[in-house]
Amino acid sequence: MAQISNTSNSLYNFIVRDGNGIKGLVDSGLLEVPKIYIQPINERINKLETKPCDMPPIDLSKLNGKEHEKVVNEIVRAAETLGFFQVVNHCVPLELLESVKDSAHAFFNMPPEKKVVYRQNVSTSLKMRYQTIFAPEIENVLEWKDYINMVYSSDEDALQYWPNECKDVALEYLKLSSKIVKVILEILIGKLGVELDDSKIESLIGLKMVNMNYYPACPNPELTVGVGRHSDAGTITVLLQDGIGGLYVKAEDENDVGKVEWLEIPPIPGALVINVGDALEILSNGKYKSSEHRVMTTSNQSRVSVPLFTLPKFTEKIGPLPELVKKDGLAGYREVLWKDYMDNFYGVAHEGKKTLNFAKINSS
Ligand SMILES: O=C(O)CCC(=O)C(=O)O
Ligand SMILES: [Fe+2]
Question: What are the UniProt keywords, alphabetically (predicted)?
């Protein structure tokens, strides 16, 4: 924290201590991007070097019909290649998705004094946090994003600790999206030729949290990032994005091996984005890809997104499934206590998929 708070104390106090967030700074009439938000050139997103991801969304309702196997294969292929795909005809009502986005706006539109009570160091609850900086003590440049993190432990706790503005819809979203996660996880594990009982599947997604990300309009989006390059730590993420766009995923150019390209996951009304996290990459011994992704901001509209992160319970030991190691003849990752993995994940600056090196064997 020293770095940021020392270099621009008053900015730090305004944004973080007083709970205004980067949203508050933009609302105050900001014309220029403050220095601590300016990314080094190699981290900026050049839209000209990106293209839209043209993978059609996967229709989950077809899992119940004669195209079951085709849909299963689409899911597996997407998880093996990009690690990202979109689903439609899932079980989450579209009105609920609209209410979730509305409630995110309702929370962030509150005055700072209402939000600051949820700030780390102010609130004693670990179940709800309002933050603007991923990790001020380790990141040198800040992300153009405010967010809340709502950790699920029980319905009672959620209704007690999560903000009134969003708790009911966030809880409903968490429950229904968790069903999608379970269906997809069972398919992916099944296709590895491994059988896991229900309690094991549950423990792989035993920790659930809903974040609400708010990216205010930025005077110069080319200089900043909404979220820098990272992979998600957990098993599977379900992401609701609004219609603004700006989520980019790293892919290998199909026509030019080794060449990297950034694909934008286009907003599709009613669709949910699904992505593989580090835990699933480890479990599958690298077969399923936890993708590097990042977010660009826009100059005239604020964007919201609402990920449901599902992660293994902290007490789980996560390593490649033994049947796969036997089949592959080699483990690409070591077994880690999930708590240790998460401590490392939150303790280092994020630089793409480097957080996975904690578990990788022979990582360079
Ligand atoms: O806002 C988005 O589209 C993605 C956010 C994200 O990657 C995250 O919260 O981990
Ligand atoms: Fe992410």
Answer: Dioxygenase, Iron, Metal-binding, Oxidoreductase
